[in-house]
Sequence to fold (192 residues):
Amino acid sequence: MQLKAVAFKNGEVPQVRDGLIEVQEPVPEGTRRSFAPASVPACQTVRDVLNARDSHAHIFQIFNWKDDIWGGGSTLASYEDGRAQQRFVDLRQSLSSCRTYDGEAWSGKFTATVAPAPAPSFGDEAVSYTETIPLGAEKGGDRNETFVVVRTGNTIASFSALNVGGTASFPADLITKQIERLRAAQQTGAPQ
Fold:
């Protein structure tokens, strides 16, 4: 399966600004800035699965919503036989103990709190959680990012929605559509 072939196309998602959602591929290892690992190993595992570390191939898309200044994103990752199931086991186990960690990102160092949410009904298995980073009232309140991570066969798809001072969720209808595409592509047995 070619991940690009099942990703959303420009003009296909009316909720995004100008209908644009480009498919982006990861930059080659060693050419991007690296950050220190999360202070809690279980939380680093959560981040690794979310960012498709150890995947066979992956792509991502950024969604700039028409009616919201805060964006969303998705990552589609394919894995060798059985590896997606194992990574999902790793994710579930890590989410059971990852509650707070210190990390680093483009904007600098931060402390995040992770709160699991009820598991949604997508794909073969799914988890959901919110990561909160306090920013202070002068910056609009807490940075809340909600994640839904779904395994379908040998793929893991993650979806995120960001908000500051409130909450947001990635549209369930788009998750359903993306998961249906991944399942259909896997059933046709198309090569990766």
